[in-house]
Design brief:
It catalyses: alpha-D-glucose 6-phosphate = beta-D-glucose 6-phosphate. The chain is mainly beta. The chain is built from 1 helix and 24 strands. The strands form 5 sheets. Strands 7, 13, 14, 16, 17, 18, 21 and 22 form an 8-stranded antiparallel β-sheet that branches.
């Protein structure tokens, strides 16, 4: 199930695929709910994976507004055609237009979006996304196609929010020896090589030059989550910690302890180079152990 702060907004929870707030359904955004998955038409965003675990896997903030045209804080947003501020550092919205766009539903948890040229990204593109799941594995597939006659660079990222028992106790392995860019303001060095497992002692915002595989070790819940990818060259690891969480309107002040973002795709120096008429498929498999 999805996890959120019990204190926020009177208490939000997922029941039979419907987001509830103090017992009343409020997931007004168009969505598809089945036994294992809930996905939103806006952003083709996975909102919930009801796995075989006794503990939640996907995290969603209790302060998410679920309003049309507003990004949902949590789940698995799709960041494209740019990530963060993109190559220029200043396009809006942050993380691209796809996550706040209405996608066409073409099957059960299958979506398509035709991206039109904009001032921020002056190229047409097409995205096809699907999500499938059983009790042990969630599989995401995102195919980007360049329908134009001009080659261009494009970024993509499955921005996965995972629930954890306590961020201060978990570790991430699989990126030892990999170079990363530290994006936390005031970081001592722009490029660092990971030494040993990743642990969390403060705000973390890193872009690793590797698509994994990676494993999240959570001793508090006595479980491991492994993310394996095909077609990925980048892994982003993020937790806002105390001050940044308090500064975000859609993030509860105390929610930072219960989540971590382990994101897979092709961003920054690993951005895709799509030739005219070419396609690229990113696959992400998240498995419970």
């Amino acid at each position: 199930m999805v996890v959120r702060s019990s204190a926020a907004r009177g208490g939000q929870r997922m029941i039979a695929g419907e987001l509830m707030i103090t017992g009343e359904p409020m997931l007004a955004l168009p969505h598809r709910a089945t036994d294992r998955l809930t996905t939103l038409t806006q952003g083709a965003q996975v909102l919930d994976w009801r796995s075989g675990s006794d503990q939640p896997v996907i995290w969603v903030s209790g302060l998410s507004s679920f309003e049309a045209g507003v990004a949902v804080r949590g789940g698995i947003p799709l960041c494209l055609p740019w990530f963060g501020g993109g190559p220029s550092g200043d396009p809006t919205p942050k993380h691209g237009t796809a996550r706040i766009s209405d996608w066409e539903e073409i099957g059960e948890h299958q979506y398509r979006l035709a991206g039109e040229p904009t001032d921020q990204f002056p190229h047409a593109w097409q995205a096809d996304f699907s999500a499938t799941a059983d009790a042990e594995t969630l599989t995401l597939r995102l195919t980007l196609t360049n329908p134009t006659e001009q080659a261009y660079a494009i970024e993509e990222l499955a921005h996965t929010y995972l629930a954890v028992s306590d961020i201060r106790q978990v570790q991430v392995t699989g990126l030892e020896g990999v170079q990363y860019a530290d994006k936390v303001p005031g970081a001592a060095a722009a490029q660092v090589v990971q030494s040993g497992p990743i642990t969390f002692t403060g705000e973390t915002d890193r872009i690793y030059a590797s698509g994994g595989p990676i494993t999240l070790h959570d001793p508090g819940w006595d479980r491991r989550l492994t993310a394996e990818t095909v077609g990925a060259s980048s892994t982003v690891v993020w937790n806002p910690w105390v001050d940044k969480a308090a500064a975000m309107a859609d993030f509860g002040d105390d929610e930072w302890t219960g989540m971590v973002c382990l994101e897979s795709g092709n961003v920054a120096g690993g951005a895709l180079q799509l030739e005219p008429g070419a396609s690229h498929t990113l696959e992400v498999r998240i498995s419970l152990a």
